[in-house]
Amino acid sequence: MGNDLAVSVKGLRKAYGRTVAVDGLDLDVRRGEVFALLGPNGAGKTTTVEILEGYRKRDGGEVRVLDRDPAEPTADWRGRVGIVLQGTGEFEELTVGELVHHFAAFYPKPDDPDEVIARVGLTGKAKARTHGLSGGQKRRLDVALGIVGRPELLFLDEPTTGFDPEARREFWQLIRDLNAAGTTIMLTTHYLDEAEALAQRVGVIADGRLVEVAEPGRLGNRANAPATVSWRTPDGTVESKESDTPTALVSELAARFGGEVPGLTVTRPTLEDVYLRMIGAA
Amino acid sequence: MVVDLARRQGIVELKQFTRSREAVVFTMAFPIIMILIFASIFSDEIAPGVNYTQYFITGMIATGLMTVGFQSLAIQIPIERDKGVLKRYRGTPMPKWVYFAGKVLMVAGIGVVEVALLLAVSIGFFDLEPPASAAKWFTFAWVSILGLSACTLCGIAFSSVPRNARSATAVVTPVALVLQFISGVFFVFTDLPAWMQQVAAIFPLKWMCQGLRSVFLPDSFATVEPAGSWELGKVALILGAWCVLGLAICVRSFTWQNKYSR
After folding, report:
1. Boundary residue ending a domain (A219, A236, A256)
2. Residues A158 and A277 placed together within one structural domain of the fold
3. Among B8, B15, B91, beta carbon nearest to A94
4. ipTM over 0.90
5. Which chain A residue's Cα is nearest to B80?
6. Domain span at A163
7. Where does the ABC transmembrane type-2 domain start and stop, copy by copy (chain B) (predicted)?
8. Per the CB < 8 Å rule, is B84 touching A90?
């Protein structure tokens, strides 16, 4: 049972004093997929992920991660789960190479550390102390430490916060390569484009609950939402019309204008529109 | 395999220590500077054939062991806890005890170098006699090892007391300093008020000092000690008891994450 699920969560609850951080959250992550947990700051993303990683104790609910309860982690289970935390740059006096080699020794069947360093693009920095790395380089080092044990499941907590656009694109490619090689990935993010670019499924979390889970293109029933068609009328004003059948409307317009429709646009709600509506409504 | 892991962890810890210059200077040079200062100022005879310098140097060797074992760990571990180093280790399959083994190996490595340095300086510049017989060398070895073990375990145990990295130095340093004043490092122990002696006798440093005096001071000095003898059996007993107590507290109350992330 549940063998095709890497993560299964039912009714997860966690409170800090009187503040309820996670309030009855249900969630499944399938083996082999990239799942993004999307939500604003304070929605409960990190609390949820750290419970799944075995760092925090939950107050209630059922949780299985790789068929085990993360509240009672074993060394074997730890060896199958990779973790990239939010914090970075903690081993300041060691070099990139020393750190990755050291962490590789913790795992039963690690990857070649030098090859992992190359994969995250830090070969040129292998002999550099970690305190001299840039923010993006530190994050890639974090990933190297998270994947050197060849995990089946990799957690990434807000991996690209503070990255410049180019560094983000490179990072995304690294995640795609990992996933293509068979690693299940669960990432949290508050960037919509990141969730859309990487994830096969997105879960939107707000106020400690999962509001919706869907493919990025179908989130908030986006694919079926009415499209807005607008065009310029002969007297120069812009006219807009919501339609469930935009294609029919466009061909009708084309017939009416006898060819090109001036100023024609067809738009559906963006992911951002849908997302803002969901977290606002929650 | 697992032993190899502990060895690797010890090497990584030593690398980190030797590469942070302040830590090296503070831990290694501080006792030497203290010896240079005190031994240059005070050189009176405190008993026939024994001057203050010899007395003070044995106390500084004990202090050096306490600094390496207790002070450095009780300050360093809260810093690592705050920085998330412990959290990161916990996310790996590394057995917990490997972390402690690494610290112990680091402390042992620094301790050996530290004691050797102090001995070299003291013998070279301040006329300290090296241990005169195999029996004295043996006493020197077991008092140092047992004392360092007690301090190390207590240092790990005490590392749960400071709430965060910033308060660690402020919480730990006074404890160490007060112990130095009441345990017979700066002052001849028997010159201290009786109640102070009794308080000091609860803690390891007094017994480490006394055990080391039995190695470096003439046997005639034993009559000046509180009990009129070196009390080596009691030294072993009390240092051993602190090892057990420290270990028990470590096992029960060691925290891997600060309280805001549990």
Report:
1. A219
2. no
3. B15
4. no
5. A90
6. 5-219
7. 22-257
8. yes
Q: What residues pair up with A7 in beta bridges, in sequence order?
A: A29, A65
Q: How far apart are CA A272 and CA A240, in angstroms?
A: 21
- CA angle, residues A168, A169, A173, in degrees to nearest 5: 115
Are residues A65 and A116 both part of a single domain? yes
Asked if the Cβ–Cβ distance from A90 to B88 is below 8 Å, we say: yes
- Whether residues A198 and A251 fall in one domain: no
Residue A116's contacts (CB-CB under 8 Å, 6 or more residues apart) are A100, A104, A144, A147, A148
d(CA B48, CA B184) in angstroms, rounded, equals 18
Predicted confidence at residue B43, as pLDDT, reads: 79
pLDDT digits (tens, 9 = 90+) for A46-104: 999 999 999 999 999 999 999 999 999 999 999 999 999 887 557 888 999 999 999 99
Which residue, A198, A219, A240, sits at the end of a domain?
Answer: A219
In one-letter notation, the amino acid at residue A88 is T
Number of domains chain A is built from: 2
DSSP bridge partners of A188: A37, A157
State the distance between the two ends of chain A, measured CA to CA, in whole angstroms.
32
Amino acid at B148: L
Q: Which residues contact B153 (CB under 8 A, 6 or more apart)?
A: B242, B243, B245, B246, B247, B250
Distance CA(B149)–CA(B142), nearest Å, equals 10
Cβ A239 vs Cβ A230: under 8 Å: yes
The helix/strand/coil state of A49 is helix
Pairing of strands A265-267, A227-232: antiparallel
Q: A190 and A70, same structural domain?
A: yes
Tokens standing for residue B148? 């360092």
Distances (CA, A) of B55 to A136, B97, B139, B215: 55, 38, 17, 11
Q: Are residues A145 and A64 in the same domain?
A: yes
**Cα–Cα distance measured from residue B29 to residue B51, given in angstroms and rounded to the nearest whole number:** 23
The residue of chain A with its CA nearest to that of B255 is A55
Question: Cα–Cα distance between A23 and A9 in angstroms, integer?
Answer: 12
The reply to whether A98 and A134 lie within a common domain is: yes
* Cβ separation B261–A94 shorter than 8 A: no
For residues A81 and A204, membership in a common domain is answered with yes
Among the partner residues B83, B91, B257, nearest to A83 by beta-carbon distance? B91
From the list B12, B80, B83, the residue facing A94 with the nearest CB is: B12
Report the number of secondary-structure helices (H) and strands (E) in chain A. Answer: 9, 12
Q: What is the pLDDT of residues B153-197, one digit of tens each?
A: 999 999 988 888 889 989 999 999 999 999 999 889 999 999 999
Residues A206 and A259 placed together within one structural domain of the fold = no
Residue whose tokens read 């009415």: A226
